[in-house]
């Protein structure tokens, strides 16, 4: 058994080194059942077998344990062994012999050291119980042989020390050594007794496996139990750290699965990408990354506001409101014949005969088109358009194609979960996702204006799942198309 204990300890350490993060019996798996084998060593009037591993008597056993706290379990154990011995030739009772069947049932407390997550945990066990002994014995003294058969129960004092080796999510290998002192017990049947109650006792050296029952609750399925998961709503399939939160390789606060620049620290508003000139255009999309500019001009400045980036503008001081050509120089025409010069006409492609205002734009949007301005909604933390929304979007697509003088403003919103910065970026991405749907239907992207308003304009209180569902939305507003106008 000494070899078995040493081998078991070495095996436990080897398996431990190869095992993944282990929990075994914890607050998530409170009940465990174990099977074990023990080497029992008798001590009594026939002598002592303590630490004589060649004299072992082997015993099967079973345990049931219940988690109480991080440092305490309650344990019920039972085992059976038969002690047999014949008195040696030199003994005063030569020829005496006994065979005693012993059944132990013990209930006690297991005091565990170290943290619950530790792979190796020493412990102490205090487990009083009941010992039943059925003895067949013959004692020879002074030429007289007496029969000492007896069946009797005894109160048992049992204490032990051991080590748990956690091998996996539910399995623990343990090794343990302890001593049983069944009070007033007479294992060998010798009627000569000492004054104390501890004449006969035995050591128990045990190795076994405990298997924790049940399964830790893990709502988001990321492998981290809810009890320890600091991000319990992580989307399926997303890689997480030991706290259950999505990995963030560049430590910029934007999870890798949402980070468009996962190897460069950026901002949430830029979906994890850097923006060194702080103009709202990620450096990877910025044609003028060292100068603050406009999103519509790929991050380049436009000092005279004519819609032509300064780097391409051959007339950089054009008066405000003047219509210009591709080089940024003024045009003096009235292309749509609405009586408003193109330089002042904000709607230069108004259909012939349309009634226009002082800016050259039609006075009102068709009421039938207005009725198409129905919001669509999204799942939590998602920018994916639901299939049920396709019909609504396709009707607006047809209206845009039937009315080339119209543009469409797309306004993204979010519910209140998450930070203001994150929800602002999420609302902008939702608006962008819907814009891509329209451009995929061959709608000119210049006619689609997007903006995000984060969680600032809820359509319902964010106090219930239904209310938050109403707030995860994109809204629409038809407007008159202004060619070459800066787009967000």
From TrEMBL:
Q: Give the Gene Ontology MF terms in alphabetical order.
A: calcium ion binding; porin activity
Question: Could you tell me which SUPFAM superfamilies the record lists for this protein?
Answer: OmpA-like, OMPA-like, TSP type-3 repeat
Does the record carry Ion transport as a key word?
A: yes
Task: Please list the residue ranges that the record marks as compositionally biased, kind Polar residues.
Answer: 459-470
Lineage: superkingdom: Bacteria
Bias (Basic and acidic residues) ranges? 215-232, 274-287
Classification lineage: Bacteria, Pseudomonadati, Bacteroidota, Cytophagia, Cytophagales
Gene3D superfamilies named in the record: 2.40.160.20, OmpA-like domain, TSP type-3 repeat
| Stated name of the protein | OmpA-like domain-containing protein
Q: Which residues form a coiled coil?
A: none
* Biological-process GO terms, alphabetical: cell adhesion; monoatomic ion transport
Give the main location.
Answer: membrane
Which UniProt keywords are listed? Cell outer membrane, Ion transport, Membrane, Porin, Signal, Transmembrane, Transmembrane beta strand, Transport
Domain OmpA-like residue range list: 365-482
Cleaved signal peptide residues? 1-24
| Region called Disordered, residue ranges | 214-252, 265-319, 450-470
Q: Where are the transmembrane segments?
A: none
User: Which cellular component appears as one GO term in the record?
Assistant: pore complex
